[in-house]
């Protein structure tokens, strides 16, 4: 009988090629499919010595897989996912699994799952984070779908995922599109943290006058303390990289226009739909948009005059470290509250401790703080905000003064720190028992008879103003 393979992978690009080699390294035989024969050829070359092979022929691909088939897609989100499903599903049998590992929009996953369910095929919207290296050596994996069918693919995912204290960075996220939703918010938090790091860079470069070498040393040091995180680690590395074309520091020749594929924007948009504030993530999306208005920014700089930034001898690198840590906490808190609310709204059944647990390793937003977050959710499964946990609160409080100092300095000098400021304002509003929004209620009632509630008695009231 012809040999069959344990795992199928469609799309041998950046993520797929690395993921399939990781599967093969973990003693699962794997078979790939791509439209490009060159990609299949290079998979064979890179996979020499492993039980891995591939094809450009979908029928051959399907015939090579053992049943129930486990087929992961790592193709671009949107049309290509539907195209692959339409191509392959007529060739599949009841009980087979299609796992979409891309950054698909969660409602697309619900639609696809529903359509495949009627054919007896399981569909798993599955977030994968960690970039190319993660896919190759251990990503964080966020699968959602049918809980029982997850058992079919669990051994492969647990083997290939990153490990923290021997625990795999993968677990069942919840029903239907829970996996894609969790990955979407992961990316929203990723946008927030990246924006905050770029603000810390700006304050230290233009405000404190640090050189690239000093910035490297600083981020490297931070990565060994409370700010330990993948994004801080790679930031430290970035400051030492030389440009091969000019031999300048590469960071200084990279254009200041940040691109985006949409997952951060989706996070913000859906947070609005849920009525959950995620201002740091909103601002991170806006800043990428402002960054792309390069020509207008340059015109405006000559119209208004370039900022002449003055230093402040009382502001230290330690203040910036604390301000960044404070903003990290608030950003995670916003994203986790969105997940908590989405899980209720969409009946995903997410376990917040599990999400924090599988983000501790492998993914782009992994950081030392994730273990503190996991502990917070272990103490209180129903925690609506991380800021309400007493240990997280103690960490935030210890950095609050520096967060205000850095924000005040940057605003005074015209250094844009909208991520840090958004985080601080969110924190201030969230930790204020009485806000001035009683006035908004009065105005609404004044101009539109929209009614208001009172502080001193139950009921709905209207006043003839
Ligand atoms: N890159 C990253 O760091 C991360 C990416 N992701 C997500 O993973 C998914 C894949 O990303 P990535 O690997 O970067 O993308 P790539 O573009 O590098 O790879 C996609 C691959 O899919 C192939 N493909 C497209 N359509 C088909 C088809 N109908 N049948 C077979 N193969 C097909 C493409 O072939 P061809 O080029 O010939 O069209 C290409 O080889 C995306 O959703 C992305 O958002 C998630 C986490 C991190
Ligand atoms: O999913 C990822 C990491 O987890 C991608 O790398 C991320 O989508 C990049 O997003 P963008 O291009 O919008 O910055």
Automatic annotation (TrEMBL):
Q: Where is the 6-phosphogluconate dehydrogenase C-terminal domain?
A: 179-465
Which N-terminal residues, if any, form the signal peptide? none
Reaction equations catalysed = 6-phospho-D-gluconate + NADP(+) = D-ribulose 5-phosphate + CO2 + NADPH
**Enzymatic class:** oxidoreductase
UniProt pathway annotation: Carbohydrate degradation; pentose phosphate pathway; D-ribulose 5-phosphate from D-glucose 6-phosphate (oxidative stage): step 3/3
Q: Provide this UniProt record's keywords sorted from A to Z.
A: Gluconate utilization, NADP, Oxidoreductase, Pentose shunt
Its Enzyme Commission number(s) read 1.1.1.44
Q: Which SMART domains match?
A: 6PGD
Q: Name one GO molecular function term.
A: phosphogluconate dehydrogenase (decarboxylating) activity
Similarity comment: Belongs to the 6-phosphogluconate dehydrogenase family.
Note the subunit structure: Homodimer.
Role played = Catalyzes the oxidative decarboxylation of 6-phosphogluconate to ribulose 5-phosphate and CO(2), with concomitant reduction of NADP to NADPH.
Its name, as the record gives it, is 6-phosphogluconate dehydrogenase, decarboxylating
State the species of origin. Answer: Imperialibacter roseus
Its gene is gndA
């Amino acid at each position: 009988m012809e040999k069959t393979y344990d795992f199928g992978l469609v799309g041998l690009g950046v993520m797929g090629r690395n993921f399939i080699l990781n599967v093969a390294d973990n003693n699962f035989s794997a078979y790939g499919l791509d439209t490009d024969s060159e990609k299949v050829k290079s998979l064979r070359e890179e996979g020499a010595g492993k039980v891995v092979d591939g094809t450009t022929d979908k029928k051959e691909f399907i015939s090579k897989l053992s049943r129930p088939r486990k087929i992961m897609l790592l193709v671009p989100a949107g049309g290509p996912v539907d195209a692959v499903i339409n191509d392959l599903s007529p060739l599949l049998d009841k009980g087979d699994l299609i796992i979409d590992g891309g950054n698909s929009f969660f409602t697309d996953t619900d639609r696809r799952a529903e359509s495949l369910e009627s054919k007896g095929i399981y569909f798993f919207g599955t977030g994968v984070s960690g970039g190319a290296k993660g896919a190759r050596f251990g990503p964080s994996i966020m699968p959602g779908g049918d809980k029982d069918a997850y058992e079919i693919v669990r051994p492969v995912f647990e083997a290939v995922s990153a490990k923290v204290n021997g625990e795999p960075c993968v677990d069942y996220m919840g029903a239907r599109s829970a996996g894609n939703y969790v990955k979407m918010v992961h990316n929203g938090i990723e946008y927030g943290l990246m924006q905050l790091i770029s603000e810390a860079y700006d304050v230290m470069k233009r405000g404190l006058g640090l050189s690239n070498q000093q910035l490297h040393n600083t981020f490297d040091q931070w990565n060994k303390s409370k700010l330990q995180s993948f994004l801080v680690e790679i930031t430290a590395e970035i400051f030492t990289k030389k440009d091969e074309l000019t031999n300048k520091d590469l960071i200084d020749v990279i254009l200041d226009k940040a691109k985006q594929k949409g997952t951060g924007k989706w996070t913000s948009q859906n947070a609005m739909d849920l009525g959950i504030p995620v201002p740091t993530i909103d601002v991170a999306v806006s800043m990428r948009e402002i960054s792309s208005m390069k020509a207008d920014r340059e015109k405006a700089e000559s119209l208004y005059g370039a900022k002449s930034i003055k230093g402040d001898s009382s502001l230290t690198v330690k203040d910036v470290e604390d301000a960044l840590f404070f903003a990290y906490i608030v950003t995670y808190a916003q994203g986790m509250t969105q997940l908590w609310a989405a899980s209720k709204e969409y009946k995903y059944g997410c376990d917040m401790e599990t999400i924090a647990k599988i983000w501790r390793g492998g993914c782009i937003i992994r950081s030392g703080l994730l273990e503190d977050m996991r502990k917070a959710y272990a103490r209180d499964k129903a925690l609506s905000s991380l800021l309400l946990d007493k240990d997280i609160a103690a960490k935030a409080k210890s950095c609050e003064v520096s967060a205000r100092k850095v924000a005040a300095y940057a605003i005074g000098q015209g250094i844009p720190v909208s991520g840090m400021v958004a985080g601080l304002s969110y924190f201030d509003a969230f930790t204020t028992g009485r806000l001035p929004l009683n006035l908004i209620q009065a105005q609404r009632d004044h101009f539109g008879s929209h009614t208001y509630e009172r502080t001193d008695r139950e009921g709905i009231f209207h006043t003839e103003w």
